[in-house]
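Feature request disguised as a bug report, sorry. It would help if multi-protein outputs had a clear separator. Right now it looks like this:
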Amino acid sequence: MLKRNSFAVLLALSAWPLLGQVDRASLNGTVTDASGAVIPGAKVVVEAPASGFHRETLTTGDGAYNLPGLPIGKYNITISAAGFDTRVAQGLTLTVGQVATYNARLAVGTVKNQVEVSGTAVEVDRSSAEVSGVVGTQQLRSLPLNGRDWADMMLLVPGAIDSGNGNGGDQRNIRFAGRSIDDNNYTFDGIDNSGVQEQAQKANTRLGVSLDAVAEFRVTSAVYTAESGAAGGAQINVVSKTGSNEFHGGGFEYYHNDAMSARGPFGPPTLPPLSRNQFGGNLGGPIKKNKTFFFANYEGFRQSSSSTPLWYVPSAAFRQQVIATSPALAPIVNAFPTPSSYPASSTIVSPVTADMDSIRPRLTPSQREDSGMIRIDERFTDNTTMFFRYNVDDMLQVTPQMGRTQDLAIRPQNAVIELQHIFSPEMVNETKFGMNRQGYHNDPGSLANGIPSITGMAFTVLGATGNALDVEDGTTWNYVDNLSIMHGRHNLKFGAEVRRIQLNNSAHARPIDVLTYTTDQSFINNQADSISIQGALPIGGMRRTFAMGYAQDEIKLRPNLTVNLGLRYEFYSVMHEILGRDKLFQMACGGFCPPGTAYYQPDFTNFAPRLGVAWSPAALKGKTTIRSGFGVYYGAGQNDDFSPPHEAIANNLGLSTADVPSLSYPVTPYLGLAQAIGVAPGTSTPTSCPCTTRTGTSTSSRSCRAASCSR
């Protein structure tokens, strides 16, 4: 089992607010009189004019209040107490995951007097030790972003590190605080939004979540509290946009072609043709004012370009010689494109560019992508709210190759339904059910009539020699529940998450045959050096479950001193193939293990204590906060790291001239012999080579040992 432990200790002196790790926001503070004495029993009311949202509470005996689980947005705050003027603060903005502090000092007066403050700004956060950053609506709307991928903006967050590979800032290129990209944990409205097979989305996906569907997102890179986990690195949570009491919408279209591109210093004199079009629109508003709201978004991407790769194919003279000498190779030779008017560079090969290919006059790689989102919010009462959100992206990338076409299809989907209920001003609970699905089908194509891939010659490799038909259909089902209880100076939080992983994958769902020749003359004479026959791997149903829970206590020891104590527990079940289609090789078994043997031993000791301290010294007048934190963090590892036992069930056969001196094409006559003596290591054991026959012919003995016949 893969497990990553990391310890983080931070001591920072900063005036920049650090943010909490939840997909909503919370507001706290202390109410005092003009002399600084606390006012217990003061009424604190927060309202969101855009949606009619309303929450209220009373200050405790220490004059403190705490309002967790607030939706992001702008609020007005009204604070009143008997014998004091009422204070109204307008335009306070709460961002995703923010632990905001707003302290109020009331003047002696009557409840009829009212003091209004506009454009309110929260004070320096005094409750969190986390290292975080939020990219808000204004940044998402205003900053130029080539390709419109929200993940590029993660580079704006403290602790972000760009891998520097030149492919931009997508999820596969950004890591945080020295950890790897596989340590990042992605959520969308608090629900798993990883790539399932791996943590990051596939790099080809641009619009997994459309930029215009994102209200804001937060990245917490270190020292986060016990309510966050499922990975040992950064916690990245995206929050979707919502509707309001007024209709808002917009549309856009971006067009880019080769005439708008600049030629690089080492580029060709004429840029290849390019046409890129990105367009979309959104609309949000009320279905019923102050009660029901909707938001819908669509974004599309279309791109076509020109590719002129240089291929090397058999020359006309070489073709004639091969067919005359070895007629069996005619289907292979004829599968290569033929040059129309390009001079041969040798007697063996001719270079061919795309515009001289008689089979495909011009290569036009293309990509189509369509992304959509719908969200419905319902406010049943001031105490009960619910929302539903569904997001889908559909992408198809077509790349013509020599003798084949590669089709790459990706279809991420994410859905969540959340119910929040306020049992009392001191107790709030939220429950979520969610689904995250990542469909990935990479078909590099195959040659007609079962022609194998040819390697070892001077000409370009014919056919796909990599994985054939890579299928990765991953789904996670999520249940999340969080309970907040305010009791005096304590803000208690308890939560649990159950995540069921269903990964249906195959690295090569189509057989792959590769024939190797070492010299031009050996090809002419059809004298192959080796052959590799990799059978189709059936799609495996890999399954595992995450069970996680936490308890934490945020203690307001003083108005300027907060301590956060928490303990998190995470259990990752052992991955298994649902139908038992696997072959596990372990030294403890002396080779292949009996069916049903667990891949590894589960770890039941993943206890993760967390500690955070935030102190704002009075001498510094609330302008500076000193933070310190400690934590233990665990991660489950990539889900596809546990697939080798399933991958071992596919036949992987090989023969060489050491086994068959007369090896040639076609290979059908040699299949029986390959099954008997040519089984490659780590795959199914040949039935004709029992473990008791380790003495005998040298080839039989070698193959038995290679196949690990030890059962």
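(second protein starts here, but nothing in the output says so)
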Amino acid sequence: MNLLSAHSPSDLGPYKGHLALEVNDLSIAFGSHTVVSHLNFQIGRGEKVALVGESGSGKTVTALSLMGLADNVSTQGKALFYAAVNDAGGSATQQTVDLLALSDDQLREIRGRDVAMIFQEPMTALNPLMTIGEQIAEVLWTHSHRLQSPNRTPRLNYAAVHSQVLTLLNQTGIAEPERRADAYPHQLSGGQRQRAMIAMAMAGKPQLLLADEPTTALDVSLRGQILDLLEEQQRLRGMSVLMITHDLNLVRRFADRVLVLERGILVEEGPVDHVFAAPQHPYTQKLMSSKPARSVGMASWGTSAASIKSAPPDSGHYLMEARQLQVTYPITLGGIKGWFKKGRFVAVQGASFQINKGQTLGVMGESGSGKSTLVLAVLGLLDFDGDLTISDQSWAKGKSAAGLNRDLRKKVQVVFQDPFSSLSPRLTVEAIVAEGLRVHAPQLTAIQRQQRVLKALSEVGMTPAQFPGLLQRYPHEFSGGQRQRVAIARALIVEPELLVLDEPTSALDVTIQKQILDVLQQLQRDKGLSFLLITHDVDVIRAMAHHVLVMKAGEVVEAGEVDQVLEQPQHPYTRALVAAAS
């Protein structure tokens, strides 16, 4: 059944300013648990609306329910989609459907063509077994008979589909579209995968786009590029956009209106400028005031420790020191040369830095700048050239390395970006946190291990009084922020001297992010911990770091005290990063 006829951007002209979507009294429940209650909002044609709130507020399940993609939910209310369509004579008319009343087959006809969605994590949303070009072409083939013009042009052929795929990739800013069309998702960077997903969403020429956290996992400059791309596509096609996000800077930059959702209830809405200038509801005020706050100890000595030239060589304050650190990967050479030898890709080149005891060194840069490779080298998980010492000890190499490095691994622990994937779903909280003790303190009894686990969890703000049965719970029973606290406790249990923080808050909403940063700052003050902080969030660097390194294409392009680098950046790349964040 063809619910809606083919359309083009020109169809939207007569309805400029009219409604595209009207949600009336929408309630969503999982069994007996209601997660969205009596939600009402509208989106005008060509309007950009942001839906904001903390994790668990009901943002994503609202969007998925509109698309018929939420599993095991019951919905009540209406979601009226007002589509601009062409009649048999080619004249633009309007047709209305209730998205919540459609069958799966009817929704399948609308999804991707009239209403499209961009998901939060492209690596899990894209098919790993199909090339990017094949996945975009699949949308075009599926909806080609519905994208005919009024004069009944034939279905698209292979050449036409391939041409449209390349056009879409080019429009979304992917370089070398002919080559990238044949690439699989894992062969693209995070920004390229997100652009490919946008190209898929645009393939059906939708009138309404649902964008679920489309920039959360991207660095600041890529966020800006993706926002610019979405705005360009929105203007070009006259689309209406519902942006789901917890990033308030993104809302301020992108949206016309904002809807604030707290525990499934709409508590405030209005034009972005009005809501940001004078938020009325206490929950909105809390979100607005959740910017990371600086509360770190002062430097133990006054000179910058981010550059070797500026640090006294015999200061004795360094916990970690790297001189001319270089990491290379073997690559296959093209042609006949590749038969006889391997090439080399330099991922980190000549990086030099120090970290003082009780201080934080922040490392910032775009995807592909070498930050993650630097982390792996610091953790002793990659071979490197140059000098790297931690408490005057270097990582051992060779067959005997495991035993020699055991003491050093106790001194250096890591907290990863995504706590849900870094915590074993099959282990209880007690087993997860105690794991390090089994390696580094095997002499402890079960009772002593449990006492140490409770102490570590208490230090990150989790106690059995707050969470009954805490030790026997599993990771899926906690929120994202609570899982990250468990991950920090796991790192603290062996009493390390250095914590490597790899994007520790990028997957969290603003209020939880502030809580985790407060916990880390308190731990640093109480225990004298040193942090190596990897992040693309300039606000987090400003709140946490004493010194900062800026990396680009594997090289350190600027280094110094955090105030100096962020307030008076010298390198054009640093200036671009700081400007993109603001």
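Even a blank line would do. Unrelated, but nice: The chain has two domains: 9-288, 308-581.
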